[in-house]
Amino acid sequence: MNKYDLVIVGAGAAGMLCAVNAKKHGIQRVLIIDKDPVLGGSLNGCTYTIDKDRKITGNQYLAELTEEFKKHDIKVLRNTMVLKIDEHGSAVCLNSTEGLHKIVAKNIILCNGAKEKGRNSIAVTGDRCAGILNVTMAKKIFAMNMIPGKNILFCGDDGIKRIINEIKKSNVNVVGVVGENSYGLTDNIFNGYEISRINGRGRVEEAILTKGDEALKVKCDTVIFAYARISDGIVAMRSGIDLNPLTTGPRVDKNYMTSRENIYACGDGIFIHEYIDDIENECENLIRFVFDSNCK
């Protein structure tokens, strides 16, 4: 059984930054694990700026980070789910080649990132029909040179900036935004309303919006949930790690250690960061502490 000095769960921005910093600090055996076939997480397809100076998009940042990543001897395990960290501190993993297996690590960093709220998490009733998506799903459809729908209603506005360029370049009609800001995509802003029901036979046909006793019908063929993302604390929860109820991610101390010794967490997995600059600083400080503590 291979044993690593550092195992990083998640190969988004935080995971890749931790891996690169670890190698720069001289940590020898580093493994990064991700459920996807490609590195980068939400940086992939990110066309808006992510730094404080508004100079670099997620796509551009990923290209630069990938070049730096390739300079170092970092082992990558793709298409692999980390189910939990067991009581002995081993990562319990699942993939199609090795099945269920364990990876032993001296230190583990959880960089699970964020997840999106969807229909199930906000208790919207109605028909089970096509055309109900989150932003990530919609972006994947655009990436295949297709459109998710012709008449789109956004539920929530925080995630619109993640897809605004694709919307503007496509021949789609934004019929409304249930939120405060449409980012110039439509004049139909339903501030203070909630989607209470989605109706459709086979495909979305309308959404019922409510505000107190008032109810509106909005005709559309697609509903995209664009609420603010929340931290993904699933692996931490399964591992018996204390969660932060305010962020839904693992609770960490000033050194980014969780409630379990030698298991750390950082990035959007502990709270949603507005700028990549802050994640860079976080990863650098975490790796410095890990190295100084038990990797020298």
TrEMBL record:
InterPro entries: FAD/NAD-bd_sf, FAD/NAD-binding_dom, Metab_Enz_Cyan_OpOx_G3PDH. The keyword Transcription does not apply. Keywords: Oxidoreductase. Residues 4-118 form the FAD/NAD(P)-binding domain. One of its GO terms (molecular function) is oxidoreductase activity. The keyword Magnesium does not apply. This is FAD-binding protein. It comes from Inconstantimicrobium porci.
